[in-house]
Every structure is written in C-alpha cells, then in structure tokens.
Amino acid sequence: MNKFLKMMKTERLPIYLSFFLAITLVLTSCSSWSRTATGTAVGTGAGAAAGAVIGKTLGNTAAGAIAGAVVGGTVGAIIGRNMDRKARELEEELEGVTVQRVEEGIAVSFDSGILFAFDSSELRPQARENLRKLAGILNRDTDTNLLIVGHTDWIGSETYNLG
Hints:
Elements: H1 2-27, H2 35-58, H3 61-93, E1 97-102, E2 105-110, H4 125-140, H5 158-162
Antiparallel strand pairs: 1-2
C-alpha cells in the first residue's frame, strides 16, 4: 500500500491536480470571465491530460502533465483572445447587428427587416454595406467556418415565405 501512495504522490498528483484545477475553474467561473480565461482553463486541463499521456510514454508523467498544461493553457488563451477580438471587431464595424460569443464561435444576428423589404429579394443598401463589411472581416481569417440561417423577413405565412 505504501508503494501505491508513494506513486500517487509523485507521478499522478500533477495530473489529478491539473484536472481538479481546470474543472474547478470551469465550474466556478462567473459570467464576467472572458472567453480568454475560459479558453485558458479548458486548454490547461486538456493539455495536462495530453501531456500526462505523452509523459508516461517517455517515462516522466509529472513533467509531461506540467508541460502539457502550459502549452494547452497558452493555446486556449490565444484562441479565446482571438475570438474575443473578432467579436469586438464585428460589433464595431457592423450596424444594426447583435454580436454574441457562443461557446467556441460568434453569432451575428441582423435586426429583423434590415436585409430585405417585404416581398422583395433585393438587399437594402445598408444591408449590402453590412454584408460587404462582414465578408471583408471573415476573409481576413481563412480558417473561419460559416453557418448561415434565416429567412428574408418575418411577415407572411410560412407557406408564402417558403413558396
């Protein structure tokens, strides 16, 4: 039993500690936490786990977990900061839109009626400008994935609008 306890203290403690800290940070995070901080916490936990596996293979689980936590935390912080920056940029450059950070992404919602007039397939002038700006922002980052959802307007029945 002493050998087991000694192994727990020396080899696996950093792993358990990293998981515990990452989970604690995520579960106790408040809404004022930035996505950068959340990305750092999640990246640290994931990096610690991956580092521990690699470290075990190389013969030093503790060093692997620590190195993985540092790398994972750094990568998570960079991704979170980039997404926060992108959301701010969209909010500053586009008019009549709502920009929200949603998990790992950004939701951009155009106000109802801003893109098309009722019974028209022509974009309004302000909508054209907003979509040009949005396209320009999205084209700056070539690794952006895009999901477009919506309808031309909310007036009329579903049968009419989809017909």
